[in-house]
Write a structure and sequence with these properties.
alpha/beta
Length: 405
């Protein structure tokens, strides 16, 4: 079997929330050693996000399986020394501090490359290291607004954070590229990853449409919705999504429902063909969701009912085995996890042996001892506040035992 090269990589993760956690999850699941470097008092801020089970946040659980936690006080002499020792065996450092923070801590890229010339430093900021806007506070929704995207979305918030996700994906791509480059040159790299730039890249098709329309783009001039690519309500308030962009799907659907006269309006927008929209809407409202499900069962026309999350999770677990599974974790019991989608024949990825997201400082003892610290030295560091103590967690199994008693 081909050796998994990722098993030899160590990544030091200073990030918080979705932005960095989503990126480093890829490397952790591929087999790399990902060590979260956390503040000793609170750690990653997403540890506190509700809902929680036995003090474990859903947010933290989703993003941090297969990772380790080392809680250090990087402002202390002993904590910084321990970190620099760990840096000697690291391949990648990733952080999402504002520019200047790593330098003030004395652990910025200029220090890192002296210790490990081949180190790859990935910095995630709003607008880059040298842009003063990166010193201001911005969240995902603010970048969406600044890019023009929010004006095309009815000014609505989204259930997931698009800017964080786009940036995380760019970070993974950049780190992978830097690792490949290092293999040939031996040189490390600084990856200056910018949230705004990443999301503007995701908007590239919208921006091209803006220019091709004569430098103007509004909700009414987007590609969709059009008559054949839309969501329609059923008689019992369910919803059906249709994506019948090809003539064979659209024409076949209309013929089966006696609406052949609507064929020319396939790509019409609501304001261009209101009567056509009303006719198709009326058709979908003429049947319940279950009736449409039965009708669609043997049809190949790019239509699907809109599932709620319960239906969707059940569907995924049935039809896509291994993509989503309930993993038994001590603190949270049966815990829903989603596998990264990378399927590479030489690098097996599975949730079967997933390790739960670490407790704050859970790996302090083992990591510090691996760096040469004795038991007494580790205890002294904890006593002086150079490193943290493991945060206790009442296991889900223990909770059940207490209920039974």
């Amino acid at each position: 079997m081909t050796e998994n090269v990722f098993a030899g990589f160590t990544i030091l993760d200073h990030t918080r929330y979705l932005l960095g956690g989503y990126a480093t999850q890829v490397f952790a699941d591929l087999g790399a050693e990902v060590i979260k470097i956390e503040e000793i008092s609170k750690g990653d801020l997403c540890r506190d996000d509700a809902p929680r089970i036995n003090g474990v946040s859903h947010y933290f659980s989703a993003l941090n399986r297969n990772k380790k936690s080392l809680s250090l006080n990087l402002k202390s002499k002993e904590g910084r020394e321990a970190y620099l020792k760990l840096l000697g065996r690291a391949d990648v450092v990733i952080e999402n501090f504002r520019p200047g923070v790593m330098k003030r801590l004395g652990i910025d890229y200029s220090i890192e490359k002296k210790i490990k010339p081949g180190i790859i430093h990935c910095s995630l900021t709003g607008f880059g290291q040298d842009d003063p806007r990166s010193l201001k506070a911005f969240h995902d929704i603010n970048f969406q607004a600044l890019s023009g995207y929010l004006s095309l979305n009815g000014g609505k918030t989204s259930p997931i954070h698009f800017v964080d996700l786009s940036t995380a994906m760019v970070a993974v791509q950049s780190i992978m590229a830097a690792l490949l480059q290092r293999k040939e040159t031996g040189q490390g790299a600084f990856c200056d990853i910018r949230m705004f730039d990443s999301f503007v890249w995701w908007n590239s098709i919208l921006d091209a449409r803006y220019q091709f329309l004569g430098n103007g783009l509004t909700e009414d001039t987007l590609d969709f919705p059009v008559l054949a690519y839309n969501v329609y309500e059923t008689a019992d308030n369910g919803f059906i999504s249709v994506g019948m962009l090809e003539d064979k799907f659209w024409d076949g659907f209309l013929s089966l429902n006696g609406l052949e006269e609507l064929k020319p309006f396939k790509l019409s927008h609501p304001k261009e063909a209101p009567e056509a929209f009303e006719m198709v809407g009326k058709l979908f409202r003429s049947r319940t969701l279950d009736q449409w499900k039965k009708w669609l069962k043997d049809k190949d026309i790019c239509a699907m009912w809109v599932m709620d999350k319960t239906d969707a999770v059940n569907y995924i677990m049935t039809e896509n085995p291994g993509l989503m599974e309930y993993c038994h974790f001590p603190c949270t019991g049966e815990t829903l996890q989603t596998r990264i989608p990378q399927l590479i024949s030489t690098i097996p990825v599975s949730l079967k042996n997933a390790i739960p997201a670490p407790k704050l400082g859970e790996h302090n003892d083992v990591i510090l001892k691996s760096l040469g610290y004795s038991e007494e030295e580790v205890l002294k560091m904890a006593e002086t506040g150079a490193c943290g103590l493991i945060q206790p967690c009442v296991s889900a199994d223990k909770k059940e035992e207490e209920k039974e008693c």
